[in-house]
Amino acid sequence: MKPTSPNLLLAELEPAALSKLEHRARRIEAHKGDVLQHPEGELQAVFFPETAVLSVAAGTSAGESVDVTLVGSEGVFGAFEACGSQRVFSRLAVHLPGNVLRVPASAYRELFDQSPALRNAVHRYVELLLIEARQFVACNALHSVENRLARALLDTNDRSGTPLLMVTQDALAQLLGVQRTTIAAAVSTLQRAGLIRSGRGALELLDLPGLEQAACSCRESLSIARRGIWTSARQACEA
């Protein structure tokens, strides 16, 4: 039977390459709030989420920080740095608990050199991250917090595979870059509409079609981009 992986990037690998990587990797059970990588340090490992959802935070010299993206089973953290400066300037933490495959940076670099499938998958993922970064700049400027929150909840549901999200309002405020009181008001609006149910340390998504209607148009724009990138038959350029 062909080996496979719950991580979509690793699922693209040649069977021999995947077996080699998993032999040198360590599967860890990541708990909510765990910090897997501190900023301004040397990259020791590349992280491939399997069932966990990770958050990447950017900070300032004044000590402020905000989550800039989530990484689930569709992605990876550290793949670019491992083949570049091998330095990290973002914090990687666990947004939702689950399993993560931790691959030593040296093992990842070796596999990256040997596997055309991995290079192609990572290239597509980088392309998608650039599109997301540009889209989120527009989203923050153009769309209401309620619309952005609906999109963020649906995106998290896509990555976690469950409508019960063990996430706090503080974490959502960090994710959207707004005050907690602003998130509390947005959560209240969606709850009154019957779209979600808020509890202590958790949110339950009650009406996914309704949330799709409430979400900003960036969700559809990014969905179109993802389909275009992942279904493309073109191969990445060789380094």
Automatic annotation (TrEMBL):
The keyword Heme belongs to this UniProt entry's keyword annotation: no
Keywords: DNA-binding, Transcription, Transcription regulation
Residue ranges of domain HTH crp-type in the record: 143-209
Superkingdom of the organism of origin: Bacteria
InterPro entries the record matches: cNMP-bd_dom_sf, Env_Response_Regulators, HTH_CRP, RmlC-like_jellyroll, WH-like_DNA-bd_sf, WH_DNA-bd_sf
Keyword Transcription: yes
GO function terms (MF aspect): DNA binding; DNA-binding transcription factor activity
Gene Ontology CC, one term: cytosol
Name this polypeptide is given: Crp/Fnr family transcriptional regulator
